[in-house]
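Morning. Coffee machine broken again, so started the prediction first thing and wrote up yesterday's gels while waiting. Chain of 446 residues, entered below exactly as on the submission form.
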Amino acid sequence: MKKITLVVIAFALSICFSSQVFADIQFYIDVHKIKEKQASDKKISKEVNKSKMLVEIGDTCFSYVQDDIKHVYDFANKRILTIKLTNKTFEDDSLFSIIGFRTYEFQNRLMLGGAFAAAKIEDNLMLPVLSEHLFSLQQKDKKSELSQTSLNNSVSFSAAGKELLSYTKQGEQVSAANKKMFIKFFRYVFGGYPQILEQLSSDNIIPESININRYDIFKESDDLKISQIRTIPPKILSLTGYNPTTFADGSDPLPKFLNDIKYSKTINMQNHLDLLLSRANEYYRNGNYIDTMLAYLEYNLASGLPFPQIFQEQSLTLKKDENVNKLLTALSSKRKEDAENNLIALQQLEGVAKHQGHVIKIFEANLQIRLGKTQEAKILFIEALKASPYITGVYKDLGDLYYSQYNTVMAWRCWDIARKLAPTHKMLMPINEFESKLMKNYPEYF
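Came back before lunch.
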């Protein structure tokens, strides 16, 4: 039997992150935030919030602390840590989830903005330039017009009659690497039209003051006052004494489940595959052909490996079985109009299977997606994983489902676990290619 690499998921984050120098400069930012909301009677209400951010910048990372939560962006490992300092817990997510969301939603905003413009909507807040500024992305084939004004000690930019960003010319000199990372910090945390950020990058000065206005459902303004920048001894980020957790609200059971799997010390893929093949042979000897077929299907979905040689010896007998035939017929049809009948057939087979019914739920879930019933599909995927947390293909499909719903954080959590279980699985090649494309097309984010 062809072997795959032994996979044991263990908690090793503290080793990964504590092995590198994290930061060498530090400063505070006083943030004065104003949100403007328009009521149905067109009256504007303002919500004002003042806070302080402690920012630290190094060659490959930046972090900021706000409201006792530390946010760490690690470009060497392409990870984002969200650390609650009060109770020493953290979440660990893919850096790709940010640009993955922004590019997806950006295209959606461009489409909506075009529709609003065609309908001659007054004060269209989804004009391309406003979306470019909000997400810090730019259309590839068009260039929005900006207006730039220099007055006394400041530079300001506007577009479509709206103020976008201004900053002071005065500030503090830092290294080229620190200034580059400062721009990344600003891009990720506050946004900013790419052309403006490019001009802001033209020297090695971090301005004393920056004001940015973003236009979404409402206008949001951030007035930033940057304190004296100080050099600090090289800092090492260590998670020793911190526990992984999920900060989700509890309405979705999957975040905690994924977290438990991610940090499990007992998940062993090779042992599971060996057990599956042993069970398949046992089912076959007992004349339980539907569970035999389902065990082989789980083996393939989990590992990405072809069916073992023994399946070829058993296949003639298996294909003569009425339930196996019913299963294969339901799986072979790709026509949307057959989806409902195939779903009923699979639900009937689920009651027939004695041991491997959770595998049928995977195929039911994909049919539910085809029928537009994504919540039903999500429940079925989760039930399948709870029965067997080794099925790589389910994490891939579930991640795709979350991505289609613009929940890119959950999408990458699913995909990351899939890659931990079976990194060479063919189903994961599109995810690897997608990340490579994001890095190529948006190098400023990496």
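The chain has 16 helices and 15 strands. Going to sketch it on the whiteboard this afternoon.
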